[in-house]
C-alpha cells in the first residue's frame, strides 16, 4: 500500500526557510516521480515542484529560484527546501505520486496517491 507522510511544516517569518520531508513506503520510491503540491482552503490545488526517477526537477514559476526539490532514495524521502518564504506561501503542502517514472503532465494530471499534508505558515 502506497503511503506518503509529510513533515517539517511550521510557522516562520517572511524571508526565512523551511525544509519539508516526504517519507515514502509501500512502493519502490526509486522508480517513480514524486511531486509537491499546495492547497489553500477554498482554492484549487497548485503544483509546486516535481522530481522524476532520474532526479530531473521541475518547478512552478511562483517558486522557481526559491524552492528546491531533492530525493534521497536510500532514505526513501523527498525533500522540499523552501527559501525566501513569503506570506503568500502560507498553505498546506502535500506530496504525491502517480507511480510514473517521469513528471510528464504533473501540473495538469491528478496524482493518485497523496500524503495527509503539512501546514506552512509564513508571517509578515
Task: Write a structural description.
The chain is an all-beta fold. The protein is 0% helix and 48% strand. The strands form 2 sheets. Strands 2, 4, 5, 6, 9, 10 and 11 form a 7-stranded mixed β-sheet that branches. Strands 1-3-8-7 form a 4-stranded antiparallel β-sheet, with no helix packed on it. A hairpin with a 5-residue loop joins strand 5 (46-51) and strand 6. It is globular and about 40 Å long.
Cα separation of the termini: 40 Å
Number of contiguous helices: 0
What's the number of extended β-strand segments? 11
H/E topology pattern: EEEEEEEEEEE
* Average pLDDT level: 96
Radius of gyration: 13 Å
Low-pLDDT residue spans: none
Describe the main β-sheet briefly. 7 strands, mixed
Descriptive labels:
124 residues; mainly beta; seven-stranded mixed sheet; 11 strands
Task: Give me the secondary-structure topology.
Elements: E1 3-7, E2 10-13, E3 18-25, E4 34-39, E5 46-51, E6 57-59, E7 67-72, E8 77-82, E9 91-97, E10 113-114, E11 118-123
Parallel strand pairs: 2-11
Antiparallel strand pairs: 1-3, 3-8, 4-5, 4-9, 5-6, 7-8, 9-10, 9-11
Briefly summarize what is shown.
The chain is an all-beta fold and 124 residues long. The chain has no helices and eleven strands.
Amino acid at each position: 500500500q502506497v503511503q506518503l507522510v509529510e513533515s517539517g511544516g511550521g510557522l516562520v517569518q517572511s524571508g526565512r526557510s523551511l525544509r519539508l520531508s516526504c517519507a515514502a513506503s509501500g512502493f519502490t520510491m526509486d522508480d517513480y516521480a514524486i511531486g509537491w503540491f499546495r492547497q489553500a482552503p477554498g482554492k484549487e490545488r497548485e503544483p509546486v515542484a516535481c522530481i522524476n526517477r532520474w532526479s530531473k526537477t521541475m518547478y512552478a514559476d511562483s517558486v522557481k529560484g526559491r524552492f528546491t526539490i531533492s530525493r534521497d532514495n536510500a532514505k526513501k524521502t523527498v525533500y522540499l527546501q523552501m527559501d525566501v518564504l513569503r506570506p503568500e506561501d502560507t498553505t498546506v503542502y502535500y506530496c504525491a505520486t502517480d507511480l510514473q517514472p517521469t513528471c510528464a503532465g504533473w501540473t495538469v494530471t491528478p496524482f493518485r496517491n497523496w500524503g495527509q499534508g503539512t501546514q506552512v505558515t509564513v508571517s509578515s
